[in-house]
Amino acid sequence: MHNVPGTVWFVGAGPGDPDLITVKGRSLIERAGAILVAGSLVDDAATRWAPDGCAVADSKGMTLDEIVAWLIDAAGRHETVVRLQTGDPTLYGALVEMARPLEAAGIVVKAVPGVSSAMASACAAMEALTLPEVTQTVILTRVAGRTPMPPGESLAELAAHKTTLCLYLSATLGATIREELLAAGWEADAPVVVVHKATWPDEERVLRTTVACLPATLKNEKISGQAMIIVSPTLGARHWPTLATSKLYDPGFSHRFRKGETA
Ligand code: SAH
């Protein structure tokens, strides 16, 4: 017990491979008095660095109120409390819903970023999310499931920009995704990458399909949760015959660290 409540740290655990937590996240785990893991999603291995005697609990059967009560109680006992979240804690992780009641209880809350599954999935597929003169924008989104999409954020509207789209929480909604992409003007044979359990040791699967075949691929490969769907005009660029290259490495381009050649 100590007089001042401890700090609750929302730490991004990364997408699955325990090595993908940040050094800062790991050192917080190493000095944590209590850790609450999002058990259904975060590999238990992420708690392998917890000190002896650290209270480790799994929130998978808890409601939001129960999670908050657990964290408040832990902060009353320990200086460092860690809430381990999958991927990055700022994306689809109820960060604000948990932080508000903790702050109202006088507890300091802080967050540490993590590798989000969109980035892990792009790396698994060896694809770039941006390419010069192809797209310079990435939209992180989802399609409506039980959580409705706010006005203006339907996939058909977002996809009309023809940028890279990373779809979270949408692996059971292949038919909707296809319908909305086609409505936005994507070609039926445009490439799509699905990454199931990106970076999970022995479980990662990278599937290549098309807009038209996406629902069948998800069904045949039995993909339901834990999958990232990437739709992008950059996909497959490693095999294109020609590519516009980045200005940064162009011999004629000057910048702070290199003087370009003059013709
Ligand atoms: N905060 C997390 C996202 C949580 S929402 C992040 O930044 O990644 C859960 C969704 O994330 C899943 O439905 C899936 O779309 C995606 N996801 C999480 N881990 C994944 C992984 N290892 N591989 C592919 N997708 C994953």
Kindly report the average pLDDT value. 93
CATH homolog superfamily of the largest domain: Tetrapyrrole methylase, C-terminal domain
CATH overall fold name of the largest domain: Methyltransferase, Cobalt-precorrin-4 Transmethylase, Domain 2
Question: Gyration radius, to the nearest Å?
Answer: 21 Å
**What best-fitting shape do the alpha-carbon axes yield?**
globular
Low-confidence stretches: none
Descriptive account of the structure:
By secondary structure, this protein is of the alpha/beta class. It folds into two domains: about 5-110, Cobalt-precorrin-4 Transmethylase, domain 1, CATH 3.40.1010.10; about 115-235, 2-Layer Sandwich (Methyltransferase, Cobalt-precorrin-4 Transmethylase, Domain 2), CATH 3.30.950. Helix content is about 25%, strand content about 20%. It contains seven helices and ten strands. It has helices spanning about 25-30, 65-75, 95-105, 115-125, 155-160, 175-185, 215-220; strands spanning about 5-10, 35, 55-60, 80-85, 110, 140, 165, 190-195, 205-210, 225-230. The strands form two sheets. The protein has a five-stranded parallel β-sheet, with helices on both faces. It has a five-stranded mixed β-sheet with strand order 6-7-10-8-9, sandwiched between helices. A hairpin with an 8-residue loop joins β8 and β9 (about 205-210). α2 (about 65-75) packs across α3 and α6 (about 175-185) runs antiparallel to α7. The longest helix is centred in the first third of the chain and has 14 residues, at about 65-75. It is globular and about 65 Å long. The model has no long low-confidence stretch (mean pLDDT about 95). The structure holds S-adenosyl-L-homocysteine (SAH). S-adenosyl-L-homocysteine binds near residues 15, 91 and 121. The site of S-adenosyl-L-homocysteine (SAH) has 22 residues, from α4 and β10.
